[in-house]
Amino acid sequence: MIVLRRKGLAPVLLLTLLAGCTATEPAASRSAPATPPPATTAGAAPTEQYQVKTRELGLNRDGNRPLPVTIWYPDTSTGRFPVIVFSHGLTGLPTDYRRLLADWAEAGFVVAAPTYPNTNKKAAQVNALDVVNQPADASYVLTQVLALDAKAGDKLNGRLDTENVAAAGHSAGGITTVGMFTVYRDQRLDAGIVLAGSALGMGTAFRGPDAPLLFVHGDADAVVSYASGKAAYDKVPWPKAMLTMVDGDHGRTLLRAGNPAYEVLAGATTNFWRWTLYGDPAAKTRLAQDAEQGGLATLDDNL
Predict the structure, then answer these.
(1) Whole-angstrom distance, CA of residue 72 vs CA of residue 19
(2) Which domains does the chain have, with CATH numbers?
(3) Residue 211 — left, alpha, or beta (φ > 0 → left; ψ -120 to 50 → alpha)?
(4) What would the mean pLDDT of 101-110 be, rounded to a whole number?
(5) DSSP tally for the chain: helices H, then strands E
């Protein structure tokens, strides 16, 4: 279990920046098919829009960190799909992000979103400082979910592309995601998305193999400052892009389906996943096009 030991972490500052960061939108034997069909041809993401199902997975790291996980996945019996672990914000729940996570699943991704024990809205006592323990939680969840690909009789048996995995998160979950690429680097991660997050408590010593990162941040964010997100982005040594939402807040409107800004975010993030996890070059071009819609965002593109 990771302990709180980062000297650079200022508890009062962390509590202040993360207050109210939630969004309001609503060992197994392998028995996979001998030759599992691919989700699509190499270098091209699926073109169809899948029906989506959800399931719950009860996990507990080290016996004292309960981590119930909600999984959104394509409802199909064929294909292998990349896996994304998603981290919610402080006083949030995975279901607050259900529209975005379902959009990703519809496009051909499996999204696993844990409820963290001490930062969710139903916790007996919310503790913002526990964010430093969440990168290890997320890596544990990723390990357990990827194992389902080889679990006999499981709905996801033979359906997971265990070689293409990523992490994403909003606010405190964005900080969690940064930690998975810095001080608590998970070497399996191929890409990441940081929504209204920063490097607070995690540092900017990005390490390990190159992993493209997309930062999304509103320039009017009053909870986690745009400057702090940009500072983390500037330190990324790999292919990267920053989608700046013009007059964008911390997520209350940004992450609500039906809002024009949401459509920009959903399109850009989905195409980022298509490019990084399926190797689809056309999706990279569409990402830049998404950023131009309606003058709602700008894109610093270093991908």
Answers:
(1) 27
(2) 42-302 (3.40.50.1820)
(3) beta
(4) 98
(5) 7, 9
